[in-house]
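Section handout 9: paired folding examples.
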Amino acid sequence: MGKATGKPVRQLLFSEALRQQKHSPVVDPLTPPHTNMTEDTQGASMDRILQEISEVGRQLEGMGNAMVALKAETRSMRLEIAGFQTQISGLDQRVTTVEAQATSWANRDQELLHLRSRLTDLEDRSRRNNIRLLGIPEGTEGMDIPSYLRDMLPKLTDITFDPPLEFQRAYRLRPKRQDGKGRPRPIIACMLRHGQACQLLQTAQTQGPLRLGTLEIQLSADFSRETAERRRAFLSLRPRLRHLDVKFGLFEPARMWITKNGVSRTFYDPEDLRMFLE
């Protein structure tokens, strides 16, 4: 009986062990045991993600603010550019006005030069009957200069005038010096007849300086100041013309004729002649 009862007990114990083993979970020795760390890790990851999202949100907010500032600056720049365009348009208008004025002034300058040239020509024409005398001592003419010249000029030029010389007026230039020093003042005589004035000037040109006793008297045409200055400028170029072996001649009122290498040219401006010779 003892043996019969022992066997069923062992079988019962073995069956209970199998039952418990079946209902217990299988443990893999290579797999670490499951704990609550997985939930903690997931929570930390979520926190980091939320922080990164928050950081990205702040960056986006900063970028939005920067875009707003950029738009405001762009709007300001557009306004400035519009202002510059308005100023440039105004400056263009002013430049156009100034250019028009400059053109007008240039035209006026040309007109003034033309008018001045005409006035000079008219003044020279009004002096066509004048002669200029240099070298007559002060006081020699007495109180009546026309009578003195009527008697002196035929002797000076050795010309018999018929009819006798007549003058519209005759006078000395500039006031007399108080100290009586210096060269005698020129005498300007306005002849009544243009032919007699031309005869006197031609004689003086062909004979050169005229002499009356011990006096050397220069007789020349009377020109305006502008014409006289141009003639002096032309005459100052005579040494260079002679050095270059250039034939030349000064004609009234103030024009220089030259012949160089067989080619003749006429100059009305001394500066043009100077540049031509250079």
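Moving on to protein 2 of 2.
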Amino acid sequence: MKRLFANLAMASVFSFCAIVAVAQDTVSLVPSQVEGIAADSPESGAAGLLQTMEERFVEGNVFFMSLICLILLAGLILSIERVIFLNLSNVNAKKLLSRLEDALEKGDIEGARNICSNTRGPVAAVCYQGLSRIDESPDVVEHTANIYAKIQINRLKKGCSWIALLFKIALMLGFIGMVGGLVVALDAVQESGEATLMIMAGGIKMALITLASGLVVYLLLKILYSFIQAKIENLSNQVKDAFITLFDMIMKYNLKYKK
């Protein structure tokens, strides 16, 4: 798992560096060279789309667009890590509790613990902690399982605050880039002394491209964040329901085997 995340991070960094390098190369081309390339070798499909994205990247200001791309890559890495972790943490809680109930009805505490220890996820971990205190009073069992349930739920939420911070920063960068583009447009008007559309076009284009990029990254990471939160809520409810069911099983076990 750690190797997968490391490879993903390295690939993202290399992709980001490639984007910046291509953008810098595009900046170094004068307009006549760009037109000559377009005329001599017309591109279509994916190649044409890539060239358009490179041009928009440069027109939106390399600095701001680089920051937005970096935020997008970081947000995607964190989101993918959380989705994978949550998917691995998700188990069939009903099937697990059914197996535990069968083991407890037979009085096989050790077997029930082995079932929990061999099952991944927060539900099994909380059940294991409850079964580890089965010989103690019900209050101790409930208190221990409650504390461990909170620990497991906090583990599920790990990294989510960073995702929320990143999509908020992306939105703010979009607005800041928009303001910067408008300032560039006004500076051009001030220098020329004329408020024509041609003079203001560069600054306005920068403002709109930066704002649009920030909004796209914001929406993408926000959707991923909401999806992750929904999965966390579902797993949290599973943990709480499983604990209540397990507590009832333990009470029945105590009544049957500890008279």
